[in-house]
């Protein structure tokens, strides 16, 4: 482990971030706290390139929490598009309603109040308090944890799940000045996203290469084997394809159509909901898996069953 003074790390990250930070709309000074909150929900387990168009569409349609709160929750799910993990859309819709009901339509500024909103955990509460309100809060996501692990502890990767030791390390590295703390949080996160990546780190471009314990140790292999997430053939894939059908549908879809292909094609070329039904059934999922996917969507309130069929929640 290399002993480096915090102020040295802070200075190098500050200078690097000033040069290399991406121009992202939720970083602009005119972006509202609501815009920051929306970005944090969307960026959970989703890359920036996929989030950007959805964020712009979302903010144009619902520039304030009150604008979303009056909509049916199904519209939030529909607008979520292909971002994945659509329960985030439901939670954001619920958070918007809470903001209107409990905070006069304004996103709360304190960590504790943010933590009470639906879908907001310790990371999101800290990130919104820091990036939207300039609060001195410890922000710890996977990118930040990876930078801390390599630079300070000499490990190739952070632990599989956040540990108390990692949380304490992050707190100890946080600058005392509020403005500096915000820059540090954003800068280390950006470094992890662009340079200190999980699989192919660009160590030659890193401003902390002379201070990195992992580099000094010869870039040892990870102390555990990361488990990849399967996709093809999983319930998640089937659920996603079924959600695409419901998002494209302008009316309830018969459950039988979700369970098996229609025998008659009404038009020479499939489009709209028909095209998405074809994609769903092209997965060749067993009936039991299709039933399990539909039951999961209904249970998670991402869909609802009516007399006319299955639809997004009203």
Architecture overview:
With 314 residues, the chain is mainly α. It is built from 16 helices and 2 strands. It has a two-stranded antiparallel ribbon with strand order 1-2. The radius of gyration is 22 Å and the shape is globular. It starts with 5 loop residues before the first helix and ends with a strand. The model is unreliable at 264-269 (pLDDT under 50).
Give the mean pLDDT: 93
Please bin the fraction of helical residues: 40-55%
Overall 3D form: globular
> What's the SSE pattern?
HHHHHHHHHHHHHHHHEE
Q: Supply the number of helical segments.
A: 16
Unreliable stretches: 264-269
* Beta-strand content bin: under 5%
Walk across the major sheet and give the strand order: 1-2
Radius of gyration: 22 Å
**Major pleated sheet:** 2 strands, antiparallel
Secondary structure blueprint with pairings:
Blueprint: H1 6-20, H2 33-43, H3 48-61, H4 65-69, H5 73-79, H6 87-103, H7 111-115, H8 122-133, H9 142-153, H10 164-173, H11 178-194, H12 213-216, H13 235-248, H14 255-259, H15 273-282, H16 287-299, E1 304-306, E2 309-311
Antiparallel strand pairs: 1-2
Helix pairs in contact: 1-11, 2-3, 2-8, 5-6, 9-11, 13-15, 13-16
